[in-house]
Amino acid sequence: MIQRIQTLYLVVAIALMIAFFFVPFGYNIDTVVSENAFVEQPLTGLNQGLSLIIPVALSLLTMLIAIFSFRNYPVQKAFIGISALLIGACIGIVIYYLTAGYDDTNANIAIRTVWGGGGLLLIAAEIALLGAYRGVAADQKLLRSYDRMR
Predict the structure, then answer these.
(1) What does the alpha-carbon distance between residue 111 and residue 91 come to, in Å, rounded to a whole number?
(2) Does an H or E element contain 124, and which?
(3) Is 120 helix (H, G, I), strand (E, B) or coil?
(4) What is the rounded CA–CA span in Å between residue 79 and residue 35?
(5) What pTM value is reported for the model?
(6) Nearest-angstrom CA–CA distance, 56 and 17
(7) Which of 60, 57, 76 is nearest to 132 (CA)?
(8) Concatenated DSSP letters for 57-119?
């Protein structure tokens, strides 16, 4: 069963990264101190600008290249590794957004961020890429053992 399981893992990782664009990974809660009113704004991959769009798009591109480079296992493993590093960068950016907070020039407004759960999609995509990497390595090992039998 060569080249089946890693393709499925890569497709799952691609689906998770596309879902990350739309699922909120956190919320900005703006509280007006004088009126005790608050506004909740979702933080998604699309509304955070280029800081998340570029690494997510590059990881999607490298995963697609990895799917179509199935004939060259070292290249496929390299693209899976690059994609895993890009997703790791996305995880770091999400953690930064959630921990650094935001400031407002108006002293009457207090802004805080809370966890939204969409960041777990990035971790699930990393796990799927690990499975894909292991699948490619298993196929490489299987082909080497077939070559030794000839």
Answers:
(1) 22
(2) helix 120-149
(3) helix
(4) 52
(5) 0.84
(6) 7
(7) 76
(8) HHHHHHHHHHHH-TT-HHHHHHHHHHHHHHHHHHHHHHHHHHHH----S-TTEEEEEEE-STT
Residue 36: phi and psi, rounded to 5, are 55, 40
**In the chain, what's the furthest Cα-to-Cα distance?**
81
Q: How many angstroms separate the CA atoms of 110 and 101, rounded? A: 10
**Phi and psi for 42 in degrees, rounded to 5?**
-75, 145
Q: How confident is the model over 22-61, as pLDDT tens digits? A: 999 988 877 776 777 777 888 888 888 888 999 999 999 9
Q: How far apart are CA 52 and CA 94, in angstroms?
A: 8
Q: At 131, list the tokens.
A: 């499975």
**CA torsion through residues 16, 24, 104, 49, sign:** positive
Read off the pLDDT of residues 116-129 as tens digits, 9 standing for 90 and up. Answer: 888 899 999 999 99
Cα 129 to chain centroid distance, Å, stands at 10
